[in-house]
Specification:
The chain is an alpha+beta fold. The protein has twelve helices and twelve strands. A five-stranded antiparallel beta sheet has the order 4-5-8-6-7, with no helix packed on it. A four-stranded antiparallel beta sheet has the order 9-10-11-12, sandwiched between helices. It has a three-stranded parallel beta sheet with strand order 1-3-2, with helices on one face. A hairpin with a 2-residue loop joins strand 10 and strand 11. Helix 9 packs antiparallel against helix 10 and helix 10 runs antiparallel to helix 11. Bound molecules: flavin-adenine dinucleotide and iron/sulfur cluster.
């Protein structure tokens, strides 16, 4: 792994000031939380920086209550917590392995770099194919998935928590030296495999919060992966619903592992909810979600299979909805 300077600030202000200081000196840096994504990328010499700022020393990022989870809370703490919504714990339990989850964090999971089989490879391998646009080593190389262009990267967002957080109405909170801002988590992501999200230079995710009605929502998360032991989602579908007197009052569906962003399928959920007809509505919903996703060929399974499986996963995620 190329050497880098590791900065470990102990307050949020210190971290944001360090970022500003490095930027003013013309130095590029990365934030690091658990490092379970960043360090493997650094070991493969993928877009490494000379400076890395750790968020691990900032106490306020570790706060976890039923309606708030700090960016530095580990995924295993979320799995074992009795206070967070059970669907968040369930989705977290499907991420990687226990050992990885003990270091991996909520913030790192939300901000996970997009993935592509032309990109997540060793430096020698990538050099042997003359690189690609996302890590072109100054060559101006084209994208290998959408060829003959080097403007767009369609690497796939393969983190598990985002669709569940979207379906539970989470708000994401960001901080920089200039301002603190928040937005629905569904507005955080950007359809670009390189930019990935709305974070500006020097800005971090500090925590997420949930609305007061969080525990009135039920739901399920279904994931397709090659090996159950620890693989990234090849497709992931979260479905949540709220009942009032046995009647479905609200419904949300979101997907991950299929495009450069996780997607909240508001229109499809609303159409299914209007004139709700139990099993038939679930069949229509599964088909309309399948139709709306657009996977490309850059992960393990072919796009056509992942698309087909979206229908199956949606139906499975609705099982408890039909039982209630
Ligand atoms: C073998 C293996 C299997 C895996 N399987 C899965 C899986 O099944 N599902 C899944 O979702 N993930 C999986 N992962 C990826 C990863 O472990 C998790 O997504 C983890 O949650 C990342 O969190 P982290 O704290 O380690 O992130 P880091 O590696 O520290 O950071 C990841 C990225 O987010 C940025 N970042 C981190 N925190 C912040 C913040 N607070 N604000 C702004 N930017 C930030 C970093 O700069 C970096 O770009 C796997 C990883 C490995 C090695
Ligand atoms: S989608 Fe294209 S530019 Fe992005 S990582 Fe893959 S090959 Fe590279």
């Amino acid at each position: 792994m190329p050497p880098f300077n590791l900065h470990i600030p102990s307050t949020l202000d210190e971290a944001l000031s360090k970022a500003s200081e490095l930027s003013s000196a013309g130095k590029e840096y990365d934030w690091i939380s658990g490092g379970t994504d960043l360090i493997p990328n650094y070991k493969w010499h993928i877009n490494t920086k000379k400076d890395v700022i750790s968020l691990s020393g900032i106490d306020e990022l570790y706060v976890m209550t039923p309606l708030r989870i700090g960016a530095m809370v580990s995924l295993q703490e979320i799995v074992e917590s009795n206070s967070v919504h059970p669907l968040i714990s369930q989705a977290a339990s499907k991420i990687a392995s226990v050992m990885i989850r003990r270091s991996a964090t909520l913030g790192g999971n939300i901000c996970l770099d997009t993935r592509c089989f032309w990109f997540n490879q060793t430096e020698e391998w990538r050099e042997s194919i003359d690189w690609c646009h996302k890590c072109d080593c100054g060559t101006g190389a084209d994208c290998r998935v959408i060829p003959n262009q080097n403007d767009l990267c369609v690497a796939t967002y393969q983190a598990d928590l985002a669709p569940v957080l979207m379906c539970l109405g989470a708000t994401i909170h960001l901080s920089s030296l200039d301002e603190s801002r928040s937005m629905p988590i569904s507005e955080f992501f950007r359809l670009d495999g390189m930019t990935r999200n709305v974070l500006k230079k020097g800005e971090i995710v500090t925590h997420i919060t949930f609305p007061e009605d969080l525990f009135e929502w039920e739901g399920d998360y279904q994931k397709l992966r090659q090996r159950e032991s620890w693989d990234f989602p090849e497709a992931g579908v979260a479905v949540t619903w709220k009942r009032e007197g046995g009647v479905i009052e609200d419904l949300r569906v979101a997907t991950t592992g299929l495009e450069s962003v996780p997607v909240l399928h508001t229109e499809q959920a609303m159409e299914a909810l209007e004139g709700w007809d139990g099993k038939d509505s679930v069949t229509k919903l599964s088909e309309s979600v399948r139709r709306s996703v657009k996977p490309v060929l850059n992960t393990w399974y072919p796009p056509s299979y992942r698309k087909k499986m979206v229908k199956v996963l949606t139906r499975r995620a609705c099982s408890a909805l039909l039982e209630g």
